[in-house]
């Protein structure tokens, strides 16, 4: 349903998206993960026909976003990370405005708007002015706006950002319902466990490049062509880190408080040897354990936080 | 009939409906109309007072008061029209609603045209609200109804042209403040050109070709509507082959069309890669 081929977006010398290729199946939910400035919003803007790629191609429903933007717009419902609302309108008038903008037949509008408000739990606020709604309600109203022309694809850029826990849960439930309706969803978020619950596939992007892309249950394993060891020491942390970096099997060492996060590509025997070298060197090792491969750890491991 | 009228594209245009709703719900609208009427009414009354101090009042014989009000109104319009459109697109951008609007089925042209029409509609409301003032002025000196209509038609051209300048600035610049600042700059520049032209009126007889520039001055055109045989426009050396108002309208409306085209280009987020497509097609033709 969504496909990018060598997609590149450059601002001067800065590459916001760098040779990005991905494919999202119809009816699936794709989680786009990455630190701030990684290129998620830029990619979504290109797919929403709002930005022209510098090179490469992007297709939605088989239509090129540059060559046939009108057809792409018919297929997508786009919700940017930050968006405003027209304060002087009520929730119903707000949706009526977009129904008009999407040329929804006039006779269908009132029933459609009623259904959408019900879907996003805003039936009670139908006649409330938009500026009186809370942030969570505005986000849900924005989601209803995305659905006004019954698009096949939803492009949602951090729809849960800035919401309190209850609003997040409500938003998550609505998105699950939409997924149940067979919509193809491309969603970005910083809350990785939430994405893992909703998505089939996760793509991790950093500095414009897709650095990991796999089904949600395989992403940790795929990323972990290595394992991450957490070694806690009483002191001499930097010295121990330097020692470990000398090993051919260690690709990266990060310091986190009094612990070292070691990216290790060897096997179990090598892991034992590594511990032995620390102990024989007299380093005060408090604990030595393999990190659980949860999504957040995977994210922290593979991304460097550049641009955050 | 009413149903037919209500189904017209113009009436169902969502941007127009929203703009009308929003504009009429804010107290700013009432304040703006009151302020406009206060300024125009105040200046008109002052003009009538000053005009009547030293002369005998002869109702129905003094059209110059009417002309003065028309020119004051024109100058006010020259500020209000671009001022209203200056925030049309940049305001959407600042409110973070523009991107969403651009992903709908509304084309950039339709968005811009709707914004222009909605601002114009409001200016017409302001203009109509000044009609009672004209009624007062008519007590002191009348003009033919056809001239009144001609004046309003001329105002329409001025509103479209000046409104389009504001809309273009609003599309070009990201912030409304900058757009308004540049509009102010343009107004000052226009005024300087105007003063320069005034200085040149003395040498007009030697250089009739200056009429091509002179006829672009809206104030001269309003004057010409009431005084068709005035000093310059009625001169035998006038090189214009058409009435000055027609020349003015052609130049200004053509410029407005050009500005609209440029604004559409600026607002269109994704431009088709025609050159690349042509290359691909050429490659397909010649393997």
* CATH superfamily placement of the largest domain in chain A: P-loop containing nucleotide triphosphate hydrolases
Low-confidence spans of chain B: pLDDT under 50, at least 5 residues? Answer: 283-287
Our measurement of the CA-to-CA distance between the termini of chain A, rounded to an integer number of angstroms, reads 30 Å
Tell me the distance between the termini of chain B.
60 Å
Question: Which regions of chain A are unreliable across 5 or more consecutive residues at pLDDT < 50?
Answer: none
Strand content of chain B: under 5%
Question: How many helical elements of chain A?
Answer: 11
Give the strand order, joined by hyphens, for the main sheet of chain A: 6-7-8-3-9-10
Give me the secondary-structure topology:
The complex is a heterodimer of chains A (308) and B (287).
Chain A: E1 2-11, E2 14-24, E3 29-33, H1 40-47, E4 55-60, E5 63-64, H2 69-75, E6 76-79, H3 91-101, H4 106-119, H5 135-146, E7 153-157, H6 165-180, E8 184-188, H7 192-198, E9 201-206, E10 209-215, H8 219-223, E11 227-233, H9 237-245, E12 250-256, E13 259-264, H10 268-280, E14 285-290, H11 295-302
Parallel strand pairs in A: 3-8, 3-9, 6-7, 7-8
Antiparallel strand pairs in A: 1-2, 1-4, 4-5, 9-10, 11-13, 11-14, 12-13
Helix pairs in contact in A: 3-4
Chain B: H1 2-6, H2 9-12, H3 14-25, H4 27-53, H5 63-85, H6 88-94, H7 98-102, H8 108-129, H9 131-140, H10 145-172, H11 176-200, H12 211-214, H13 218-226, H14 244-267, H15 274-285
